[in-house]
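Milestone 3.1: sequence recovery, worked example.
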C-alpha cells in the first residue's frame, strides 16, 4: 500500500500531467450540474454534453421538469443510457427541490442524497464542484487508479476507497485530487490500455511493473 507521502506525491504528479483537470460536464449553475451528473450515471460525460445544450435551453428551472409530460422528457434525453429511469428521477428530484428547498439545489451531501437518482457519488460531485466543499467522488476511474497504484486495496469497496483517499490526502486537496484521478484514469491509466511504459508513476506502481514484466515475457 502506498504511504500518505507517496499518495500525495502521486497526486501532485497527476496534477502536473493534467493541470487542466476539472469537471468536464458543461453547466452554468448548480441545478444544471445536478441534472448533468444525474444523466452521466453509466454514460460518458461527452455524450451528456451532446444532450444538455438542447435540454438546458428548454428546461431552465425545476418547475419546467415537473410540468413536462414524462414521455416528452424521455424523448429529450433518449440518446442517454437508462433514459426512462433518469427522466423519472429528474421529475421527482425537481419536485423535491420545489417542495423542500425553495427550488434551489441544497449544498450538503446529506440533503443532496435525499433527492431521487442522487447517490453518494453524485452528491459529492455537486457539493464539491458547485459549492466548493471538500469531497472525493469515487467513480470507475478513481477506483481503478487508486487500486492499481496501491493507494487502497483491490478488495476495497467504493466507500472504503473514498475513506482511504480522504485519510491519505489533505482535506483542502480532496476536490482537486478527485479531478486529477479522473483525468489520469480517463486519459492515461485507461481501463483496457494503461500507458505504463511512459508513466511517471511506474516506479511506485506494482501493477504497472507487473504488466510490463508480463509484456516482456510474452
Ligand atoms: S504504471 Fe500503469 S497501471 Fe500504474 S499508474 Fe501508471 S499507467 Fe496506471
Amino acid at each position: 500500500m502506498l504511504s500518505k507521502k507517496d499518495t500525495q506525491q502521486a497526486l501532485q504528479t497527476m496534477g502536473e500531467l493534467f493541470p487542466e483537470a476539472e469537471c468536464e460536464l458543461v453547466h452554468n449553475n448548480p441545478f444544471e450540474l445536478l441534472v448533468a451528473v444525474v444523466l452521466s450515471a453509466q454514460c460518458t460525460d461527452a455524450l451528456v454534453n451532446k444532450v444538455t445544450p438542447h435540454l438546458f435551453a428548454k428546461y431552465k428551472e425545476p418547475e419546467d421538469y415537473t410540468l413536462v409530460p414524462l414521455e416528452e422528457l424521455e424523448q429529450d434525453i433518449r440518446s442517454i443510457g437508462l433514459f426512462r429511469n433518469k427522466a423519472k428521477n429528474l421529475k421527482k428530484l425537481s419536485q423535491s427541490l420545489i417542495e423542500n428547498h425553495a427550488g434551489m439545489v441544497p449544498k450538503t451531501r446529506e440533503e443532496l442524497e435525499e433527492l431521487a437518482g442522487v447517490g453518494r457519488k453524485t452528491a459529492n460531485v455537486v457539493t464539491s464542484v458547485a459549492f466548493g466543499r471538500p469531497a472525493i467522488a469515487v467513480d470507475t476511474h478513481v477506483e481503478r487508479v487508486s487500486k492499481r497504484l496501491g493507494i487502497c486495496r483491490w478488495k476495497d469497496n467504493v466507500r472504503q476507497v473514498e475513506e482511504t483517499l480522504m485519510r491519505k490526502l489533505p482535506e483542502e486537496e480532496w476536490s482537486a485530487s478527485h479531478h486529477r484521478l479522473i483525468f489520469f484514469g480517463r486519459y492515461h491509466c485507461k481501463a483496457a490500455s494503461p500507458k505504463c511504459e511512459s508513466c511517471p508513476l511506474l516506479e511506485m506502481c506494482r501493477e504497472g511493473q507487473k504488466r510490463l514484466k508480463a509484456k516482456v515475457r510474452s
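Residues 148-149, 188-189, 194-196, 199, 201-202, 205, 207-208 surround iron/sulfur cluster (CB under 6 Å). The radius of gyration is 19 Å.
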